[in-house]
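Box 3.1 A note on notation
Throughout this textbook, protein chains are presented in two layers. The first layer is the amino acid sequence; the second is a token string describing backbone geometry. Keep the layers aligned when reading.
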Amino acid sequence: MTKTICSNCIMDFTDPDIKFDDQGVCNHCRRYEVVARTRLIPIADRESKLQNLVDEIKSIGVGKEYDCVIGVSGGVDSTYVAYLVKNLGLRPLAIHLDNGWNSELAVSNIEKTLETLGIDLYTHVIDWQEFKQLQVSFLQASTPDGEVPTDHAIFALLYKLAAQHGLKHVILGTNVVSEAILPEKWGYGYFDWRYIKSVHKQFVHSKLSTYPHFSLFKLFYYVFLRRIRMVAILNYVEYDKKEAMDVLQNKLGWVYYGGKHYESIYTRFYQAYILPRKFNIDKRKAHYSNLICSGQMTREEALTLMEEPVYPENLLQEDKEYTIKKLGLTEASFESIMNAPTKTFLDYKTSYGIFEYAKKIVNASRRWIG
């Protein structure tokens, strides 16, 4: 009988590229083992490695208004990063991208967090008309990575502001214990400017003139000439999602918003409605599987949670009506998009080959360069 679901996590055939070994364990679980070994700081070394990192950041930031930049969205990971770096004695500048989809709760979480911690905030309000066209383009592209426009713009801003302030460290909320599992065809492209341009050009004739972005050349400039380093600081500490939420609620008055990345109305609707209906993708499988691999959730708990609705039906309908109207679509045009044949990033021009080659070099040299 053909294996359809992993015996260790809950990833299944909805990932078209999933593979199982002789024990019925999927490639995502096996990859997690490798990533955890190479990227998580060993427990015995965490205190010293973290202190060395903090000392390095402080040293480079001497005489400057800030010593690092962080991204804030109002979600668990980025909020905990703000809490952590402040408690480590760092002087971060918080960067927030307002792409027009913030929930009131996300805005409230950001304001309470930064005010309590005494962290300055830079907010970039995106050109809505231009960004709206780009989001609709990705819907029309029929690929399951419609969040790429937001993610790319966030990274572009983090690099740009770090460079403007002469800083070398961008502190990220990305981490192994909760974010290492995601099928490539579910979410490729947030670093790939060529891919974004390709999708936009196919459906919109105007150029992206104000959208925050970086080309491969600009990425080379940031990484190798300006020596700006993306630091996943949560890999340096014992990061438990539930414990982190408790800390944020008790220390900062932070309020949970109901799901991973649900601080954004568009993300909430995209993950809860568009992905399952059009692409047969439920990202909770990847999120819960990651927590299973990191020991923060049992497989049985994950399977039970998967039986629950993605989010309340009344909220789903509200989000649907709101999203369609805000994007300037009609019910008919939205349904046409939903019923169009699905594609992947491979159907568009990308820099995929270059990134894959670079990834191999980075992974091979990770033990030498840290």
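The mean pLDDT is 94. The first helix runs from residue 27 to 39.
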